[in-house]
Amino acid sequence: MNERMKSIEEMTQALRDAGIRVTRQRAALLSVLAEAGDHPDAPELHRRAEAAVPGISLSTVYRTLSTLESQGVIQRHQFEGASARFESAETDHHDHMIDVDTGEVIEFASDRIERLQAEIAAELGYEIVHHRMELYVRKTSDS
Amino acid sequence: MNERMKSIEEMTQALRDAGIRVTRQRAALLSVLAEAGDHPDAPELHRRAEAAVPGISLSTVYRTLSTLESQGVIQRHQFEGASARFESAETDHHDHMIDVDTGEVIEFASDRIERLQAEIAAELGYEIVHHRMELYVRKTSDS
DNA sequence: AACTCACTTGCAAGTCATTTGCAACAAGAC
DNA sequence: GTCTTGTTGCAAATGACTTGCAAGTGAGTT
Ligand SMILES: [Mn+2]
Ligand SMILES: [Mn+2]
Ligand SMILES: [Zn+2]
Ligand SMILES: [Zn+2]
């Protein structure tokens, strides 16, 4: 969270400017996602959003998540063998470690790795559009 | 391809030793995968295997791919927005770049990144079981 | 070579996460 | 408040893969 974080008002205005209506359903999901400290999937976001908008449908959740993703407001992660998980894009870039025993998702960031990735791509004549790095890990048995 | 590459005979014997029968279908897929220089998906492997075993079914291809993967003979990759792709495990570890314009898959390896990943995991008390690193790239517009 | 039988296969049907067609609904510009 | 057009809920469709089952076949055994 280095750059100034957009307020909900700024985000909704940005959406409106893009011709996207800020419906109750979308506002609810925006707020749920802004408050989430984890990486929930669509059914879980649906559950959380129902508190603010009873009757919101799962398809609307899916549709809204796609919309918000294409607006760059949220990020979608497809970890191995799991359904898609989401998080607000209002954070600095980071990658993830998944504890293969517990399923816990741990965030981390490494400027050195990011730099090396860019270097490698450049050497081959490419520039990185985006990337994905996931470490599937297990607690060290410090025996 | 640093360590000595297993011959088809050695691989099939290893499978038999694991109680896995080397059927015509499985032999065909093993050979198709050994000869593939790319990262084909199941329907493509099915197509290629049909040359050796006419009538082989797509479900058998899927079942065999799962079996071979669990035997560590092949690797499964799930790139963004695509169905699973496979490659023989008879290569040294490497990661992939995907050209977002053409879909081309480019292999690369970086000891430095691999080392950094292990370091980061270790710092947090974890050891890496396996990982996934994909760079989605675009040819540099050298203008 | 014949025998045996647990492992495999082809086919049809099933899963499951996610998407989509459509008529009723509701943002938000005027 | 009215109007226009994007949105929603619901049910049905998708697409990639998985699975039940009866017939078929590796490969150890005699
Ligand atoms: Mn995260
Ligand atoms: Mn590869
Ligand atoms: Zn990163
Ligand atoms: Zn790697």
UniProtKB/TrEMBL annotation, chains A, B:
It comes from the Bacteria. It is found in: Cytoplasm. Signal peptide: none annotated. Pfam families: FUR. Fe cation binds at H93, D95, E114, H131. Its cofactor is Mn(2+); Fe(2+). The keyword Nucleotide-binding does not apply. Its main location: cytoplasm. Binds 1 Mn(2+) or Fe(2+) ion per subunit. Keywords: Cytoplasm, DNA-binding, Iron, Metal-binding, Repressor, Transcription, Transcription regulation, Zinc. InterPro entries: FUR, Fur_C, WH-like_DNA-bd_sf, WH_DNA-bd_sf. GO terms for biological process: negative regulation of DNA-templated transcription; negative regulation of siderophore biosynthetic process. PANTHER family: FERRIC UPTAKE REGULATION PROTEIN, ZINC UPTAKE REGULATION PROTEIN. Homodimer. Belongs to the Fur family. This is Ferric uptake regulation protein. It comes from Salipiger thiooxidans.
